[in-house]
């Protein structure tokens, strides 16, 4: 049975302003779904997001927890941090580019439209000071785009691979978000096909490398319900193979977390229950999903 969820967005997140839920509303939804331990993890892409979305989330978190003292130790404050290029992090952090020169979304998603350095060096916009300032208890790190190399299939693969390893090994990362998730929407991906369409065709060497890195850096692996049921845009057995892989990781002693990645309404209680049963069938012990109870609190050293 699924009792925890550490990847939940609120209405403060840059992509949830219209569809999002307040933390108070989330608590009601989570209660209905039987989730007892959870964390909010709104998006951070660049340093630009902290004083806006994350400051708002932190404020709301403190106010909400003050109203719900019973949730102390069960409700956590995190972020979902995208891997970015070091180049754009630096450009934005040091204001080497004017905000009003960015053609869309301001700096929210970094400098995505631009011709940045081809297959750029990955990095993450976080540091000890920021983590302390906003009281960030945990970091979910995710890869959301290739870094300036769409149109070159080999480079896209390489970019994702380098970004995943960067995310897992980063000293601030606690959980690897939605491995193999592919964002199909933005215009700048220039029609590149999802290279992770078929789990079978993801090279064994890459699967082993991810497992090795998770184990080495003691980073948890997030199981997303999105991947646990058949999807029309993924190969028919993707969900089975994905969950079997997660079960194998758990057998290796790698921590698994459950992350719904809810942006709008939370999953229906029966859907959460169904995914829990699917995970069990695939060999995942859901009673051992990581829920922070044995973790040292606060930006623990890694
Ligand atoms: Zn994400
Ligand atoms: Zn997310």
How would you characterize the overall build of this protein?
Helix content is 33%, strand content 13%. It is α/β, with parallel strands linked by helices. The protein has one domain: TIM Barrel (Alpha-Beta Barrel). Strands 1-2-3-6-7-8-9 form a 7-stranded parallel sheet. Helix 5 packs parallel to helix 6. The chain is globular. The C terminus is likely disordered.
Our Rg estimate from Cα atoms comes to: 18 Å
Distinct bound molecules:
zinc ion
Task: Spell out the helices and strands N to C.
Answer: EHEHEEHEHEHEHEHEH
Structural domains: how many: 1
Largest sheet entry: 7 strands, parallel
Percent of residues in helices comes to: 25-40%
Mean pLDDT, as a whole number? Answer: 94
> How many β-strand runs?
9
CATH architecture grouping: Alpha-Beta Barrel
Our measurement of the CA-to-CA distance between the termini, rounded to an integer number of angstroms, reads 29 Å
Helical stretch count?
A: 8
Which residue ranges are poorly predicted, with pLDDT under 50 across at least 5 consecutive positions?
296-302
Structural class: alpha/beta
CATH class: Alpha Beta
Principal-axis shape equals globular
- The name CATH uses for the topology is TIM Barrel
> How are strands sequenced across the largest beta sheet?
1-2-3-6-7-8-9
């Amino acid at each position: 049975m699924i009792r925890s969820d550490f990847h939940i967005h609120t209405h403060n997140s840059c992509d949830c302003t219209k569809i999002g839920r307040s933390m108070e509303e989330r608590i009601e939804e989570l209660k209905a779904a039987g989730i007892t331990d959870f964390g909010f993890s709104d998006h951070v892409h660049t340093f630009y997001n902290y004083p806006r979305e994350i400051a708002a989330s932190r404020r709301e978190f403190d106010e909400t927890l003050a109203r719900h003292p019973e949730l102390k130790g069960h409700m956590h404050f995190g972020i979902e941090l995208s891997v970015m290029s070091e180049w754009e992090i630096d450009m934005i952090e040091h204001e080497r580019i004017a905000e009003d020169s960015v053609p869309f979304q301001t700096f929210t998603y970094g400098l995505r439209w631009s011709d940045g350095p081809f297959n750029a060096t990955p990095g993450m916009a976080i540091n000890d000071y920021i983590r302390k300032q906003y009281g960030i208890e945990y970091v979910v790190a995710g890869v959301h785009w290739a870094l300036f190399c769409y149109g070159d299939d080999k480079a896209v693969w390489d970019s994702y691979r380098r970004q995943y390893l960067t995310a897992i090994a980063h000293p601030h990362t606690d959980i690897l978000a939605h491995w193999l998730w592919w964002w199909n929407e933005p215009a700048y991906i220039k029609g590149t096909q999802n290279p992770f369409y078929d789990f079978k065709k993801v090279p064994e060497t890459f699967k082993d490398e991810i497992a090795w890195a998770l184990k080495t850096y003691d980073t948890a692996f997030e199981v997303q319900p999105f991947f646990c049921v058949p999807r029309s845009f993924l190969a028919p057995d993707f969900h089975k193979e994905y969950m079997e892989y997660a079960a194998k990781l758990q057998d290796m002693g790698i921590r698994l977390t459950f992350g719904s990645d809810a942006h709008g309404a939370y999953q229906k209680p029966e859907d959460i229950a169904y995914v829990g049963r699917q995970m069990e069938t695939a060999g995942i012990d859901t009673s051992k999903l990581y829920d922070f109870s044995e973790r040292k609190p606060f930006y623990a050293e890694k």
